[in-house]
Amino acid sequence: MIDLQKRYHQYRQGNRSITHETILTLADFDGFAAQCDFNCDQFHLRQCTRSGILLPDTLMTASTKRQAAYFAGRYAAMLALRRMIGGKVTVGRGVDGEPLWPEAVVGSITHTNESAYCAVSGNQHYQAIGIDMEPYIDAKTAAELHPRILSKKESDYVNCIDAPFEHLLTLVFSAKESLYKALFPLCHQHFCFLDAEVTLIDYANKSFELALLRDLNKTLASGGLYNGAFECREKEVLTILLYKNK
């Protein structure tokens, strides 16, 4: 279960696009998490220089909205890493866009148009972490997108759950994004939404289970089960998947 408790709350005058920053506690998580809210209209590239967070070349000509979201995600990572290992630590970017963490650190970053989240831990606790937040998909878009996200078997299962279909689709979408973020750094193999299947959504315990449907490498094989937690909010859903060491 995700239990987000705010531990630290502050307005950041030095970075005008970051409106609030918060250290979070996640239940049953051996690590550190942070959230920062941001206003992309207040973003300027000089904030990257001040914070030591450099935009990759591929984002230098991107929209301000995209630049601000990237900055906020790395800023949240910097907050979480500061609590974990101290000092000012920045996170790089791999050739496929994945975060490059310091040695012996695993983590994940997600953002919406207004907030960014990061969770980090040591690799003695987890092999990988995946975290994702998604605004709820509207009903019209859900009707168009669901064949790309859900198999027939998953659709039948989801339709038996007493919740709005578009909310359930968003939850499954986010859960599979968390799975991808967790597993990709371990295999560097791209896989799609239909390469994993939701086998359980438990609203009472705010948990889910996914089954991998294809081999990614010798250890990440078809049939592997991965468990995660979720939190449904008013406008969005947050999922986290912790791939523990065996």
From TrEMBL:
The record's Gene Ontology cellular component field reads: enterobactin synthetase complex; plasma membrane
Chain sites annotated for binding CoA: 66, 74, 110-111, 132, 177, 181
- Membrane spanning residue stretches: none
Q: Where does Mg(2+) bind?
A: 132, 134
The record's keywords, sorted A to Z, are:
Enterobactin biosynthesis, Magnesium, Metal-binding, Transferase
List residues of the 4'-phosphopantetheinyl transferase N-terminal domain.
Answer: 60-121
List the InterPro entries hit by this protein, alphabetically: 4-PPantetheinyl_Trfase_dom, 4-PPantetheinyl_Trfase_dom_sf, 4PPT_N, Enbac_synth_compD-like
4'-phosphopantetheinyl transferase domain location: 128-209
Q: Which reaction does it catalyse?
A: apo-[peptidyl-carrier protein] + CoA = holo-[peptidyl-carrier protein] + adenosine 3',5'-bisphosphate + H(+); apo-[aryl-carrier protein] + CoA = holo-[aryl-carrier protein] + adenosine 3',5'-bisphosphate + H(+)
One Pfam family for this entry, by name? ACPS
Annotated GO MF terms: holo-[acyl-carrier-protein] synthase activity; magnesium ion binding
Q: Which cofactor does it need?
A: Mg(2+)
Q: Looking at the keywords, is Transferase present?
A: yes
- Function summary: Involved in the biosynthesis of the siderophore enterobactin (enterochelin), which is a macrocyclic trimeric lactone of N-(2,3-dihydroxybenzoyl)-serine. The serine trilactone serves as a scaffolding for the three catechol functionalities that provide hexadentate coordination for the tightly ligated iron(2+) atoms.
The subunit structure is: EntB, EntD, EntE, and EntF form a multienzyme complex called enterobactin synthase.
UniProt family annotation: Belongs to the P-Pant transferase superfamily. EntD family.
- The name this protein goes by in its record: Enterobactin synthase component D
Recorded source organism is Sinobacterium caligoides
The uppermost taxa in this organism's lineage are: Bacteria, Pseudomonadati, Pseudomonadota, Gammaproteobacteria, Cellvibrionales
